[in-house]
Each structure stands twice: as structure tokens, then as C-alpha cells.
Design a protein that fits this description.
Blueprint: E1 16-21, H1 27-38, E2 42-44, H2 45-49, E3 50-51, E4 55-56, H3 57-60, H4 62-73, E5 78-81, H5 85-94, E6 97-101, H6 105-122, H7 143-162, E7 171-175, H8 178-190
Parallel strand pairs: 1-5, 1-6, 2-5, 6-7
Antiparallel strand pairs: 3-4
Length: 207
């Protein structure tokens, strides 16, 4: 599959975009929007991971999780969202672009709390038929508690990882506030056929 940025097979620059950030930052929402605007397949790692009965494939069968992710990202083009450490190197090395939602902790917490409350109240069906329950919020692994406890570590890890030579090939956009994500989508909408995210203006490159 060619992205809409390709004028023809010989001119195609395949885009493989990884969208990362702390739980609740809005990775999936942005990834879906990017995939729609750029006409790329969207891969949600949560959908690959979570099985019926809230079985966490990355923990219960990590080899199978890695196999499924590797198969999905073997495609020529995609937008992937997710933070799973067991496949992070696999995804980042295959990616051509990285969009990092590096929002301050108060923004993250307000987003993840609102999202979790809405899902629990509405009994929203998520992956593999699973639904959020109020009791889940007491678990250390629940997104609310996980976002709070991992926010600082995640920022430090990403800053260190992006600086490594094995990721020097990545075009990195570090978005520091939600309006940066809106601006990114707005610029893409005004510039159909964009082949290089580094050509977009007004964003902080991670360093």
C-alpha cells in the first residue's frame, strides 16, 4: 500500500509513524487522525495486546505478542500507537517518524481521569469485548495510577532513547501541549501529499 504522499512507486517515500506518550496522553486519537489524513494503516498496540477477559498478552505470552507486532509492522506503511517496552525497539527501528506526546503531568492526569470515568460509567466496550469497571481503578496497573507513577520515568527514558545513535534515522516531533497536536493535524490538512514531517513548522525537535 502506498501512502497518499506517493506520486508513484518510484517516487514513494514510505512513512511509518510511531506515536508515543504516557497513558492518557491521546496517542490513539492522534494516531487515528494521522492515519486518516495520510491514508496509512493504523495499528493500535493495545488492540494487539488485550485479549478476552483482560488477558495481557505482553505479560502472559510475550513471544506471541512480539510475533503479532512484528507481523503487523512488516507492512510498508503504518501509524502505530503504544508504549509496550517489549516491542519498543522493534517498532522504533522500523519507524521512519516518531511523534512524542510529551505533555505536562496535570494535562495527562486530567485526560486519563476523564477518560477512565467516562468508560466506566458508560460501560464502553474496548478491546476483545472488555469493559472498564470501577474496581479496576484500584489496580496499580490501571491507567490513572500508571500514568501518575510512570510520567517522570517515561519522559526521562524517551529523552535518553531518542538521543541514541540507533534511532538517529527517526524524524522526531516532540509535542509539548495538546494544541501542538491540533496544529500538526492542521498543517497536514493544508499540505496534502506531505512526505516528510520534518518539513512542518513550529514544532520542537527532541534533543
Amino acid at each position: 500500500m502506498l501512502s497518499r504522499s506517493c506520486a508513484g512507486p518510484e517516487l514513494c517515500t514510505p512513512m511509518r509513524i510511531a506515536v508515543v506518550g504516557t497513558s492518557g496522553s491521546g496517542k490513539t486519537t492522534l494516531a487515528r487522525a494521522l492515519a486518516r489524513q495520510l491514508a496509512l494503516p493504523h495499528i493500535e498496540l493495545d488492540a494487539v495486546n488485550w485479549q478476552a477477559g483482560w488477558r495481557d498478552l505482553s505479560r502472559t505470552d510475550p513471544d506471541e505478542f512480539v510475533r503479532r507486532v512484528a507481523s503487523a509492522i512488516a507492512a510498508e506503511t503504518w501509524v502505530v500507537d503504544g508504549n509496550y517496552g517489549v516491542v519498543r525497539d522493534l517498532v522504533w527501528r522500523r519507524a521512519t517518524n516518531l511523534v512524542w506526546l510529551d505533555y505536562d503531568r496535570p494535562i495527562i492526569m486530567s485526560r486519563v481521569i476523564r477518560r477512565s470515568l467516562a468508560r466506566a460509567a458508560l460501560r464502553t466496550e474496548m478491546w476483545a469485548g472488555n469493559r472498564e469497571r470501577w474496581l479496576h481503578m484500584w489496580r496499580p496497573s490501571h491507567p490513572i495510577r500508571w500514568a501518575w507513577s510512570t510520567w517522570r520515568r517515561r519522559r526521562r527514558e524517551y529523552e535518553e532513547r531518542i538521543g541514541r545513535t540507533d534511532y538517529a534515522h527517526l524524524v522526531v516531533l516532540r509535542l509539548r501541549r495538546p494544541r501542538d497536536a491540533e496544529k500538526l493535524l492542521g498543517q497536514l490538512e493544508q499540505a496534502p501529499g506531505t512526505q516528510d514531517l520534518s518539513a512542518l513548522t513550529g514544532f520542537q525537535a527532541a534533543s
